[in-house]
Amino acid sequence: MTTIAPLRVASRWDDEQAAACRSELELRAYTSRLLGQDPRLVLHGGGNTSVKLTETNIFGEADDILWVKGSGWDLSAIEPAGFAPVRMQHLLHLAELTELSDVDMARELRVGTIDPAAPAPSVEAILHAIVPFKYVDHTHADAVLTLTTSVHGAELIEHVYGDRVLHLPYVMPGFKLAALCADLYARLHGAATIGMVLMNHGIFTWAPTARESYERMIDMVSLAETYINQHVGGRSGTSEPAARSYSSLEVAALRREISEVAGASMILQVDDKPDAVAFANRADVSVISQQGPATPDHVIRTKRLPMLGRDVATYARDYERYFAEHAHRSAAPLKMLDAAPRVIVDSHIGVVSAGRSAAAASVAADIYRHTIEIILDATELSGYRALSASDIFDVEYWDLEQAKLGKGSPLPFTGEVALVTGAASGIGRACAELLLLQGAAVVGLDLNPGVAEVATGPAWFGVQCDITDTEQVTTAIEGAVKRFGGIDIAVLNAGTFPPSQRLEALDMGAWRSVMGVNVEASVFLLRQLQPLLRLAPGGGRVVVIGSKNVAAPGPGAAVYSASKAALTQVARVAALEWGGDGIRVNVIHPNAVFDTALWSAEIVEARAREYGVSVAEYRANNVMRVEVTSKDVAQMCVAMCGSAFGKTTGAQVPVDGGNERVI
Ligand code: ZN
Known about the structure:
Elements: E1 2-3, H1 15-19, H2 24-36, E2 48-56, E3 62-69, E4 83-87, H3 88-95, H4 102-111, H5 125-130, E5 135-139, H6 142-148, H7 153-161, E6 165-168, H8 175-180, H9 184-187, E7 195-198, E8 202-207, H10 210-231, E9 236-237, H11 248-262, E10 267-271, H12 274-280, H13 285-288, H14 299-302, E11 307-308, H15 312-327, E12 343-346, E13 350-355, H16 358-381, H17 389-396, H18 399-402, E14 417-421, H19 426-437, E15 441-446, E16 460-464, H20 470-484, E17 489-492, H21 508-534, E18 541-545, H22 558-578, E19 584-590, H23 601-611, H24 615-619, H25 630-641, E20 652-655
Parallel strand pairs: 6-7, 11-12, 14-15, 14-17, 15-16, 17-18, 18-19, 19-20
Antiparallel strand pairs: 1-9, 2-3, 2-5, 3-4, 5-8, 7-8, 10-13, 12-13
Helix pairs in contact: 6-10, 6-16, 15-17, 19-25, 20-21, 21-22
This protein binds zinc ion.
């Protein structure tokens, strides 16, 4: 048993880095990044910052400008270009209005900018303008949320901060919040007031300099952390993983149901670490997990409530009821978002997050991991109390919040999971890269450990794996399901191409070894994947990389030709057996794809010499006189997984520039 060490925020201000900033705006970006890079302060797009500067306009006149975080920028990586310059005069004038609709506010913030190319200003721009200090920092720091979501939150804030911060009851972010702060100047208790706590939302600090405003944020959050550490006993946990009490198929079945309710394929990410399982098994989990998010901003990523257990239909009905209860308050008609959960708390699995993409699922996972800590700490302080359902609903269906999720049509394989063997190079790598580009989450298997670095980001999972080792394959599949929730597409590409050998000289060990990789390993993989492919929300798809040699074998290539023919025959049987389960199995027969690991420049030159032709002629030795590349094969693979082949199974398509012996 180990005690989870309390991690604390600390100032990461660095004199050298600060001195390297060539303008106040660069300095503003620098301390914003310091905030954004500490997940205890800022998570995924949360928080915003600003600086007030005087700029000279084109007429040579001085203009007071608020440079405020633009929407679409994340504080962790913000640059000067991520700040929108808005005229202070315009913002302060807006603050005097008694009412301003969201639509009007968004337009007026745009109207007030001095640069038409700037990003849309943060919805908190008016509030930043009202604060009578040059630098303003705003975060949804965990420790502050813990205090303000406690039942006695208001007293705790008073106790911890006294006069140093103003504290405001929760109001909807945007104009309503700015309006509440309109008389801010009058409310400041002189120099002692260095910030403002918004109940169930977050904290602002301000100062004349970037460093002071940033360090005040650190100081204020530290005070909250100290209080929590003094009043909450360290949670004990174990680093030993508990015995797994669920199967990959259960996760894939859950993913299918969630995808059906969402109306699109979803990615699921499983956290079965001991603390996640312990949370899911707490006696009070049905109370503490069903209160709501720690700050309303999180609702668009996690939904208001996690699903407890796996009854997706009941969760969806409850969500529809919640929508019906609150939608009528909206002046404009609202369209219900999908009713599928984004967080699932299950006593056997642990905590599962869901999203339309691997990135969305991992954002939900991060946010909920922090939420659990906040819930547990607040529960120990005086009880966890989230905002009312109606307050959360207003933010969930706030246009300005939904805009954060981005619009536009999704990529064709968004929410789908593909497994590609031999993904570190050649055709496998090209297939993996193209599937990633088209929105899929991809699991790449390869003997080469370099497979881990084929791509970066949450949608790539590269696993070093010997596909002839059944245990390694089983572990890789389990890992893939934990990471993405299931497998929809399998690209069987890994294979070996032995040196030329005539039959009479055939080495039987080599025969068995090639058959082991090219046939047996693929058969085992297909066998293991079938139950997962059956559960693919969009139907399972298998693409087998065969060879021209199936139709047109060459002398000296008995093993290779026979192995690819056997594999093709297995694929045809799979197409027959699995079609009823919605699984399509198709075969590509490439020929002479020279940009793969099998073909070095020297081998190609030697072959060209053998045939008495130039290298260029040898490379394009087909009916169309074109070179065939890994990318060409990958494009066919992706097409076979898409709607063009939606009603095709058992097909064999050459990608070879046309071969006289095949045609
Ligand atoms: Zn906020």
